[in-house]
Design brief:
Keywords: Adaptive immunity, Immunity, Immunoglobulin domain, Receptor, Signal, T cell receptor. This protein is mostly beta strands. Helices cover 0% and strands 51% of the residues. The radius of gyration is 14 Å and the shape is globular.
């Protein structure tokens, strides 16, 4: 298989009260077509378990697209495309991280991926 032609870039922003810092560990990621990729969003928060983490994607010359949001640290959130679990988001309370998994990578998945957090406590 040939590598995905376009790199998948991502960055993060923070919104909402109580979300103190959002960090990206990697500047860009790439993988082969039909493989999966994990994008990590490290969140420093006083109450990570109550945070809702939203994931977005922006493709070149297109509007921002909401992919999925995750609230639970025990259950992953999934979004299906063509009957497949294409998008999965989960929260790791031990590492204060949300992980977005994009499965069955295709050229159309290239874009900028964002995570945002919101605490409904405040």
């Amino acid at each position: 298989m040939s590598p995905l032609e376009a790199f998948t870039f991502f960055s993060f922003w923070a919104s909402g009260l109580g979300l103190s810092k959002v960090e990206q560990a990697q500047i860009s990621l790439s993988t082969e077509v039909k493989k999966s990729i994990n994008i990590h969003c490290k969140i420093e928060s006083t109450n990570f378990e109550s945070e809702t983490v939203y994931w977005y994607r922006q493709k070149r010359n297109q509007a921002l697209e909401h992919l999925v949001y995750v609230t639970s640290t025990t259950t992953a959130a999934r979004s299906q495309v063509d009957g497949k679990n294409k998008i999965e988001a989960r929260k790791d309370a031990r590492m204060f991280t949300s992980i977005l998994t994009v499965n069955f990578i295709e050229k159309e998945d290239a874009g900028i991926y964002y995570c945002a957090g919101w605490s409904s406590q405040y």
